[in-house]
Amino acid sequence: MLNVNENYSKLPGNYLFAEIAKRVAAFKAEQPEKSLIPLGIGDTTRPLSPSVVAAMHKAVDEMGVKESYRGYGPDYGYSFLREAIRDKAYLPLGVELSIDEIFVSDGAKSDCGNIGDIFGINNVVAVCDPVYPVYVDTNVMSGRAGDFDGTRWTDILYMPCTEANGFLPELPVRTPDIIYLCFPNNPTGASATKPQLKLWVDYALKNGAVILFDAAYEAYITEEGIPHSIYEIEGAKECAIEFRSFSKTAGFTGNRCAYTVVPQALKLGGASLNKLWGRRQSTKFNGVAYVIQRAAEAVYTEQGMKEAREIINYYMNNARVIRDGLKNAGLTVYGGVNAPYIWIKTPNGADSWSFFDRLLRQANVVTTPGAGFGPEGEGFIRLTGFGDAELTKLAVERVIGIL
Ligand SMILES: Cc1ncc(COP(=O)(O)O)c(C=O)c1O
């Protein structure tokens, strides 16, 4: 008899963003004259840089001419982009990769979600708490998460990231097989130093675990000594897969281009994860549009890098305005230094949703309640630097005004 994948029915609805939208809509209906400022937004807002736009125009023109038209591209991305990634994203970090270790894709979200395809169903998964929800939900879909007990999934190992541990997870007592790490972190904005990441690499090597390292925000690192790639840590090529994206690096959230590195040295019981991922991608994915890959290539030109940096600086200046403004007003504030995310402790022990409502109704500012990212997110809200600079300043003034 036909049946559906029951794991999907275990998933609670997209509670966080649906609930935010519901509360915002209700408030707008009650008070239509109020102008709301979104400060919780996790999407880029600045336009594509001139170098990227020019590269896209040129590539579109090529596609419109018989001699330079291109159909399906190579499965793992055009070599011009994979070589640019190898030479411009990794070599300057002292990380040597071959292009067959780099898989171009349409997003870090898809790759983080799809990577589970190449792992057995009985592997124990560990995630940080709070966490980017994709890691958990995709493991629920594949049947690795157990049941939802109303707060947590029974088979997932949660690694609390709290004020007490500086939002850096501690090594789990029970050994997981698959460890998701994301630094700089969404939502806490925390970053990890080389010695801190080395602990994880050593732990994974010792225990035969694999680290799935999400580096979607590496371009936002401003401090020296914070690794941009897990492969800056010795031994990581034997135990880690890294996800990166042009989304936040160059405003590609609407363009869709990312890449995943699966080193040749990464073997599990004789199986090459590089080969498995290649097989998975060539079977289920038909590549990123030529025009978009040319656009991504342009991010690595001298001018392209300069323009991308200017946009990142714009967002990070917003992050600084939020961070400093709210800190000076007496709030306890984390993040915003190596990440565009600012993680704010709610005042007087208010729960995330109560403070969210207060900011919505009294300051007319929309935020993201921390509780939506996991149980340890309770008592926090997340703000981001991705908004408009003037509106960000105004939003901070409004928030301060109601404290
Ligand atoms: C931690 C993290 N990983 C991945 C993504 C998704 O990236 P992409 O746009 O490349 O799918 C996001 C986007 O919000 C994110 O916060």
Distance between the termini: 59 Å
What is the count of helical runs? 13
- pLDDT below 50 for ≥5 consecutive residues: which ranges? none
Give the full name of the CATH homologous superfamily of the largest domain: Type I PLP-dependent aspartate aminotransferase-like (Major domain)
H/E element sequence: HHEHHEHEHEEHEEHEEEHHHEEHEEEH
Q: What's the CATH topology label of the largest domain?
A: Aspartate Aminotransferase, domain 2
The largest sheet is: 7 strands, mixed
Name the average pLDDT.
Answer: 97
Tell me the structural class.
alpha/beta
Bound molecules: pyridoxal-5'-phosphate
Radius of gyration: 21 Å
What does this structure look like?
With 403 residues, the protein is α/β, with parallel strands linked by helices. It has 2 domains: 12-47 and 304-402, Aspartate Aminotransferase, domain 1 (Alpha-Beta Complex), CATH 3.90.1150; 53-300, Type I PLP-dependent aspartate aminotransferase-like (Major domain) (Aspartate Aminotransferase, domain 2, 3-Layer(aba) Sandwich). Helix content is 39%, strand content 14%. The protein is built from 13 helices and 15 strands. It has helices at residues 6-10, 15-30, 50-63, 79-90, 108-114, 133-142, 194-207, 247-250, 273-284, 290-298, 302-328, 352-363, 389-402; strands spanning 37-38, 102-105, 125-129, 157-160, 178-182, 210-214, 240-245, 258-261, 267-268, 271-272, 333-335, 341-345, 365-366, 368-369, 380-384. The protein has a 7-stranded mixed β-sheet with strand order 2-8-7-6-5-3-4, with helices on both faces. Strand 3, helix 6 (133-142) and strand 4 form a beta-alpha-beta unit. Helix 3 runs antiparallel to helix 10, helix 4 runs parallel beside helix 10 (290-298) and helix 11 runs parallel beside helix 13. The longest helix has 27 residues, at 302-328. The termini are far apart. The mean pLDDT is 97. Bound molecules: pyridoxal-5'-phosphate (PLP). Pyridoxal-5'-phosphate binds at residues 42, 107-109, 112, 132, 182, 186, 214, 216, 245, 247, 253, 258.
